[in-house]
Every structure is written in C-alpha cells, then in structure tokens.
Amino acid sequence: MTKTNNIGRRTLLKSAAAAVAIGALAAPAVAQAIRVRVGYIGDFHGASLTAVANNLDLWKKYGLTPDIKGFTNGPIQIQALGTGDLDFGYIGPGALWLPITGRAKLVAMNVVGFSDRVIAQPAIKRIQDLRGKTVAVPEGTSGDMLLRLALQSAGMTVDDVKRVSMDPATIVTAFASGQVEGAGIWYPHVATIKTRVPALNELFTNKDALPKNSFPSSFIMRNELDAPASNGLVDAMIRLLKDANDQRHQNVARAVDWTAAMLGAPKANLQAEAEFAQYYTSAELSKLSEDGTVNSWLTGMNEMFKTFGRVPEVVDPKNYYLGARYASVK
C-alpha cells in the first residue's frame, strides 16, 4: 500500500468519526428510565393494575423501570415504605389508618370494594353466635375492620370474641380445618375456603355497612416522594395508574385473565372478587377527588378508626391524599 493511500484512508476514517460525533450531538437525548419499586397484594383489586401495566408495557410508556414486589397485606407495605425499601404500594381500606396517622401518602384511589366478609362455620348462623368463639383476622386490614363493624351492629365488641391475628393464607387453612369458628377475610380467599367448607355462612359484608361506611382501596407512596425532587417519578406513576385503571375499566375480564396469570391464581376466584367492586374511570376519580366525594369516603373511614381506637382524631384528607395532584396530572 502506498503512503498516499494510507494518508487518504486516515483522512476518511477521521471524517467518518467526525460525522458520527456531529450526528450524536444533533440527535435528541434519550431520557433515562426511572427505577421504581412497586408493591402489590395477591388478589384482583390489589394486583390488577400491576398486571395491566405489565401486559401493556405501560412502565416503558411512562419512562419507568419497575421492581415489583408481592405482599400479603397493606400494613407490611407501609412498613416497607417507612424503611425506604418500597416507593409505591397498594392498600385495602383496613390499612387507611396508617396514612391518616402520617405513615404514607395516598397517591390515587382504586375501587370501592364489596369483597370483604365475616364468615362462620356452618353451625353459626348470626353474629351474636360468635360470642366467645375464636375469630381470625389479618391484623389491620379491611377484614379486621369489617369484623369490628359486624360486632358493633350486634351490640358487641372485639372483647366479646377470641380475636386472633393470622395472615390470609393461614386463615384459609385454619378455617378449613375447623381451628377457628369465624373469620374476617375477603374474596378470593373466601372463594378458596368455600371449596373446602361449602356450607359456611357469610354473616356480614361491606354492603351491610352502607351507606355510612364505604370501603375504598388506594395506592400509596412513601412520604419522602412528596417533594419537588421526585415530581417526575410521582407524575409518571400517576399517569401509569390512570392509564392502567382505564384499561381495566374498559375490559375487566381481560384484566382478570392477566392478573390470574401474574399471580398463578385460579381465574374463577379472581372473577368472583372482581364482581364485588364499584369501578370508576380516571376522569371520574379526578372529579370525585375535586368535588369532595373521595374526602367523604376517607373521613368516614377516619371516624370509624377513631371509634375503634385506631386513631386519636379525624384528620383532613388533604394532609395525606394527593387528590388535587391526581386530578391535575394528564
């Protein structure tokens, strides 16, 4: 190869490198995905938006890289928020007393649920018949709260029963084997128990607590994210939750399929749970957050928690629910 050819080749390579560099400078910067740690509970209401987001790749759409973790209940997720091990999560209505007392923020509402039950063995026909009996509940959950309301409706308190705390899976086993006589629990666990004890009695439901008490579930975030430095993450998560919520609202059956596949759970049980809820579009939830309806749900729960000694006072929902922000994020 001649010297002239070597010089020509070097010049060509330098020109090509310069062109690549100029092109790189001219190209728009690609935003780096934000890592987010998200919790869910292994039932339809607690996992369906996560399942929808997974199947439609909404994480990528909104610039998020998820680290998804399963939990058995809401209070454990709020503990994880407090220790900085989780960014966002899901809670049922029974755990609302924790955000009310400042342990987390509500970032979005989910559904108003009717899936909770106070159930009893076949021989027990009325709430009054639970007096002196062993009744299991997952501590600090909607099942726990519904039991208290049921007892109150019968002129009783938790002191009139032998209340024991168990996680939901343990309650299924304990009830099916006759170790407990009653339970405060929810679908799909009730459906699972019915396959083993088909003659069980449902003594009290969420609808029995209406109209005074509604049972909304919600999405939560750790308190530290309510700061300007985290605005991008929080707004992206709100957009994702709104999108996933509307996708579920349009096709609940599809969401059941996706959630069953994600959880490895029987589809029939999740279908049963999915029927026990009032669903809203994101536009409706935005309106309800602005007109005071959601605040009335939360205040009603707060008053109930105060009556039961969970919280010392009634707190303005604006202190812990980002309702105005949810409505404003498009």
Extended strand count: 11
Major sheet strand order: 7-6-8-5-9
Major sheet characteristics: 5 strands, mixed
CATH class of the largest domain: Alpha Beta
Helix share, percent: 40-55%
Q: What's the SSE pattern? A: HEHHEHEHEEEHEHEHEEHHHEHHH
Can you say what the CATH homologous superfamily of the largest domain is? Periplasmic binding protein-like II
Q: What CATH architecture label of the largest domain applies?
A: 3-Layer(aba) Sandwich
Structural class: alpha/beta
What's the Cα radius of gyration? 25 Å
What are the segments in which pLDDT stays under 50 over at least 5 consecutive residues? Answer: 1-30
What proportion strand? Answer: 15-25%
Identify the overall geometry.
globular
Q: Cα distance, first to last residue?
A: 64 Å
Count of discrete domains: 2
What does this entry look like structurally?
The protein is an alpha/beta fold and 330 residues long. It has 2 domains: 34-112 and 215-328, Periplasmic binding protein-like II (D-Maltodextrin-Binding Protein, domain 2); 116-209, D-Maltodextrin-Binding Protein, domain 2. The protein is built from 14 helices and 11 strands. A 5-stranded mixed sheet has the order 7-6-8-5-9, with helices on both faces. A 4-stranded antiparallel sheet has the order 3-10-4-11, sandwiched between helices. Helix 2 packs across helix 9 (231-250). Mean pLDDT is 91; it is low at 1-30.
Pick out its properties.
330 residues; alpha/beta; D-Maltodextrin-Binding Protein, domain 2; five-stranded mixed β-sheet; four-stranded antiparallel β-sheet; 14 helices
